[in-house]
Amino acid sequence: MASRGERVTVIDRLPAPPAPDDEEAWKDRSRFYLIGLGGRGQKALRTLGAWDAVRERCTEVVGRRDWSPGGPSEGAERIFTDRPYTTMVLPRDKLTSVLYSLVRARHPEVEFRFGTAVKAVRSFDDGKSGAVVEVEGGGEVRAGLLVGAEGAGRCVVAAMAEASAGTNWRRTRVRRYEDDNKRVYKTVPFAVPESWRRDVNYSVRSKDGRVNFDALPADKFGSYLGIILLRETDELAREGADPAALRAVFDLTMPLLSPLVSDEAIAAAAAKPPSDLPSFRYVSPRLHQGRALVLGDAAHLVKPYFGLGANSALEDVEALGDVLDGGAPLERVPALFSRRRAKESRALVKLSRKCDRTGLVGFLTFILPLILDSIFHAALPAVFAPNNIAMMQASRKGKGGKAVALSFSEIGARKMRDRALQALVLGGAAAAAGAAARGVWRAVGTRVFAGGAAALLLGAASAARRNREKADVREMA
């Protein structure tokens, strides 16, 4: 927007981030949530001319070492060799810091208002200068184009839904799902010895399902930040939990990792309050209202299990950049952006939520499809696609033969086709098996029945003969 000559104001409720290379500021690893940048996010940052600067601050992750119930005590290691990209990890706040530094260097005219939150949206198009927002502390900001990148916040989204209520069926709706698999998390820093790999993800799952632990490298020197997922009712999830109880869980479920976690880190994790994971939510059927649009988590909120939150948000930014590069006037930009990304927002959330259900629903929407996809894709890879999780990171050939990530709506459509074909194959196999069974019965059933009846008669006669013989013996005695 700034390169088009537009006057840009960024309003952020958080303080200004520290410089990317301020080692003192980034020293406390446990304060910073780590994110993995996959193929989608890397492509978007490359398009925006920011990837080189971001990559310098990343740590490479080439695989994972997993301790699962019933698995080997030393864990199972897998190095990914089937991906067109390598996952790169850095603190989420450091990504913000790098992007902020790039904007300041390239466009010093951009105005930043840190420590300021948007309080309300007064108008999405006042007919004069565009949208009008009220900020905390008084005052207002008028914008020819309002971009709501408010994360899990609801100010702009809720105002859009209210403003469009009662208009027509295309009004802005917010679809929120009840979280039937709610988890909270605490962060646990530790360091791995030199003999361990420092470029893999370490993960542990307890047999009883109580604990899920995932750790990503916080730097290139062996520092790791672990996330321990717990149910919100677990005594370890509360603030001020018993450090000894937390240590006992580490010793029991992850005996190789537990010695690497200091007593201080255990005590700090037990003492801190838990952090919530987001619930699934998407905005539909459009992402705009008047001269405003929403993107990122504001448009499609998912749990961070598959690394698609930040990556899909960066895809949104790339799509908005494409619309702006097309030269459309600002008043047309929201509708054009919405046309490109609204279906993607809905498809992303629906696909992700299917992977997070529990009980019978979870088996039918996640486990069973994984099993079917693994069987059918292995047997006929040219016909059946891989499972949902693999598809979310898959790509196709775009213009010029370059790899382009599959859109989430493409994945949803492909999986619907696969399910229909799988149902046909399984139904046909069941029908063929039934027909074969009926044919066999018709061919041999009568003989079997006749033979069985004869055997019964012979058996009865034989039993009668033996009984008479026994009676004769008794009489002789």
From TrEMBL:
Domain FAD-binding: 45-324
InterPro entries on file: FAD-bd, FAD/NAD-bd_sf
Lineage top rank: taxon: Eukaryota
Keywords assigned by UniProt, alphabetized: FAD, Flavoprotein, Membrane, Monooxygenase, NADP, Oxidoreductase, Transmembrane, Transmembrane helix
Cofactor: FAD
Keyword Oxidoreductase on entry: yes
Transmembrane segments: 360-384, 423-441, 447-464
PANTHER family on file: KYNURENINE 3-MONOOXYGENASE
Protein name: FAD-binding domain-containing protein
Organism: Tetraparma gracilis
